[in-house]
Amino acid sequence: MDKRQSAKDQIEAYVGEEFGPELTIPLSLADCLVRLTKGELTGIRTNLEIKGVSTLKKQDLAIALEQHIPNALAGLFHKFDETRYQIMKQIAGRGGVSHTIIDPAQILYFTERGLLFAGMHNGKPALAMPQEVLESFNKLDFKAYRETFQRNAEWIKLTHGMMYYYGHLCDEELFELVEQYTGTKLYTAEFSRVLEDAILFYMQMLPDSKGYHSTLLKNPKQVQQEQESRLSVSRYPFTKAQLLAAGDIDFVDRTPAHKAFVEYIRKNYTISYEEADFIVADCAEDIRNGATPGFLLQSIQQQLEINDLELTRGFMNHISALNNTTRQWFLKGYSPNELSAGRSPVAVLQQPPVRADVIDMKTRAKVGRNDPCPCGSGKKFKKCCVG
H helices of 230-344, where? Predict the structure, then answer.
């Protein structure tokens, strides 16, 4: 699915398919579990860390889970943040069924813990909470978990913000930074449990051999190596507010160069703000992954018709400005402009290249490194825009 589709579009596409079976409200946990495969039941057992039932046959496992799932809710709350609690609270407040559909990956998260199930109700897609889970949920005292939800939300948002700007962090460094920003002692095992559970719900980051990395990062090992090679450069010192803002799921760092690029596209093409913003945001993401200006121009050429040299020159100017002001993973959260002050600009801008051909839109021929630059400067391509 096109990564530039909005979450709303993704959900509408998802519910347009077969959403699930007809739900009978109140929903029975036994009826939900009997429809699942042995593998799916095993997944619930694993996620809830239920011991002593791994050897049971499917029917017996379903019966065991029917008893365990309502009692597991209190333990899950220690890993929840406010977002997950509020989703369950909203459905519980409507008698256990809601027609407000959340992201498909988040539906899967709840289903894989036996808490919510998707299906059709009154002719519309719905999410439903089994009656046994609903009763257990209503018995729990939210006030006892409020501070836990808030703490977990802060941990998760700070971590997501760091992944957005740094791309990758090793375990030890992540723990130290979260301790620094929260001003509290971090217990590694507890923090790791919260984070690993959040990974499955938000899908914003992934674990690797050394720590965690953003799901947008295409080559984690390369970024690790580049960051480790810059021993004299410390990570950019973001404020706590900056990281919390960047921790929002739909966050885009719309710098002045980003906004100017969007306006340039809209000035020259009949295109909505949202569409132009998607194009520029994709460019910034490619920049953080080490893309060259030539690669970015070719990528834009696949979406917009760039049919003269003046347009080509304008795009290259905006690509250059965006590149130099985008906070980059290879540069530990700095932009090239920030690092170039007091340092060699050449050293700052040396990033692992992403090779791509650039096409002269006038001749439709591939531009070689020694050919005249298509921007019309009169210089060789290798001495001009390719750099």
Answer: 240-246, 256-268, 273-288, 293-301, 309-325, 336-340
CA distance 118 to 135: 19
For the CA atoms of 268, 270, 274, 279, the dihedral, rounded to the nearest 10 degrees, stands at -50
* Structure tokens, 61: 């496992």
* Of the candidates 75, 83, 93, 73, the residue with the CA atom closest to the CA atom of residue 29: 73
The rounded distance, in Å, linking the Cα atoms of 189 and 204 is 20
Tens-place pLDDT, residues 151-173? 999 999 999 999 999 999 999 99
- Write out the two tokens for 118: 């998707």
What is this structure's pTM? 0.83
Whether 237 and 334 have beta carbons less than 8 Å apart is answered as: no
Q: Is the pLDDT of residue 386 over 90?
A: no
Residue 4 has pLDDT above 50, yes or no: no
Average pLDDT of the residues of the chain: 87
Torsion-angle region of 95 (φ positive above 0: left; ψ -120 to 50: alpha; else: beta) = left
Pick from 243, 273, 245, 244: which is nearest to 259 by CA? 273
Residue 349: how many other CB atoms lie within 10 Å: 15
Q: Which residue has the tokens 């460094």?
A: 173
Cα–Cα distance, 274 to 242 (Å, whole number): 23
**Among candidate residues 241, 24, 246, 206, the one with its CA nearest the CA of residue 120:** 24
Q: Rounded to 5 degrees, what are φ and ψ at 301?
A: -60, -25
Cis status of the peptide bond prior to 26, with omega within 30 of 0: yes
Tens digit of pLDDT for each residue in 47-62?
999 999 989 999 999 9
Region of 376 please: left (phi>0), alpha (psi -120 to 50) or beta: left
Residue pair 147/77 in contact (Cβ under 8 Å)? The answer is: no
On whether the CB atoms of residues 371 and 279 are closer than 8 A, the answer is no
Burial class (CB in 10 A: 0-12, 13-18, 19+), 239: exposed
User: Across residues 342-368, what is the average pLDDT?
Assistant: 43
**pLDDT of 382 over the 50 cut:** no
CA distance 173 to 362: 50
**How much is the pLDDT for 54?**
87
**330-342 average pLDDT score:** 88
